[in-house]
Amino acid sequence: MEGQGTWSHRYDGVSNANESIPESDVFYSLNVLLGLARLPDQGAATRWDPKKMLGQLGEQMLGLPVRPYAFGMAMWASHDLGEELPGSTLDACRRLLKDESAWPGFKAQDLGLLLSGASMLSEHQDRSWREATERLFAYIRSELDGGSSGLFHDSATGARRTLVTYATNVYSTLACFHFGEAFEDQDAIERALRCVNALARAQGPHGEWPWFYQSTTGKVLDPYQVYSVHQDGMAPAYLHHAVAHGH
Fold first, then answer.
1. Are both 204 and 237 inside the same structural domain?
2. Same-domain pairing of 247 and 126
3. Which residue of 4, 142, 200, 211 sits 20 to 30 Å from the alpha carbon of 223, by its own alpha carbon?
4. Residue 213, SS3?
5. Spatial separation of the C-alpha atoms in residues 67 and 36, rounded to whole Å
């Protein structure tokens, strides 16, 4: 969406129109920047300037009701693009990372992406940032661990705590890998691999990844169809790490 400087929440092929939800546009645009960062030229050959867009999105998100996970994605994109976030955006990330009283109200995707982004930026921040990142991992390990199932809970409290999605486990697993690699923490790596194995056991006969699970038992509650976002985006995101660690 050229006028807004973002990609849309969704493109409707039937009406040939963009569906725009500003706070969602920002998050999915950060996803696109993360993808462009994977290219050898970091997207320099495209008609967009990913590093400039990161700054614009960082400022834009401060005035929108974005979920905490969007700030985690912004930190991740900042790391991979090698571009600093605006100071005000980084300050907002710092507040989310240090306000432990807010964490019980966060979902696993919020906590996971915050941990991923903070782990990546930790070496460039002061000691208090690194200490807060370590406390966040300890919180996830304590409050979201589903036990013998190998899966993660969706949140620390609430009725939906044990009704978890594939995304719940993808972002929690990625967070453990990112933290473990940044802090050389083998416990975090092993915790991630337990979830990788649990998800693999639940995979369908055609390679499909289920959507809903019971986190305490590992039981599949929603056998999903083969879906390109799962097959080509979410699964490879953590499987690359898993293979590097012997899976």
1. yes
2. yes
3. 142
4. strand
5. 22
By CB neighbour count within 10 A (0-12 exposed, 13-18 middle, 19+ buried), where does 125 fall? middle
β 163-165/10-12 pair status: unpaired
Q: Distance (Å, rounded) from C-alpha 129 to C-alpha 132? A: 5
Largest pairwise CA distance in the chain:
52
Residue written as token pair 């997207």: 43
Q: Which residues of the chain have pLDDT under 50?
A: none
8, 18 Cβ separation under 8 angstroms = yes
Check residue 62 and give its pLDDT: 97
Q: Which of 48, 181, 174, 163 is nearest to 122 (CA)?
A: 181
Residues 140 and 236 placed together within one structural domain of the fold: yes
- From 83, 98, 113, give the residue that closes a domain: 98
Contacts of 153 (CB under 8 A, 6+ apart): 108, 143, 144, 145, 146, 161, 162, 164, 168, 215
Pairing outcome for strands 212-214 and 17-19 = unpaired
Residues written for the chain: 247
The residue assigned the tokens 């305490």 is 216
As a whole-number percent, the residues of the chain with pLDDT over 90 amount to 92
pLDDT of residue 4: 83
Angle ∠(120,126,128) on CA atoms, nearest 5: 95
- The verdict on 85 and 145 lying in the same domain is no
Whole-number Å distance between alpha carbons of 108 and 103: 10
Q: pLDDT tens digit string along 114-130?
A: 999 999 999 889 999 99
The last residue of a domain, from among 98, 131, 165: 98
Indicate the pTM of the whole model.
Answer: 0.96
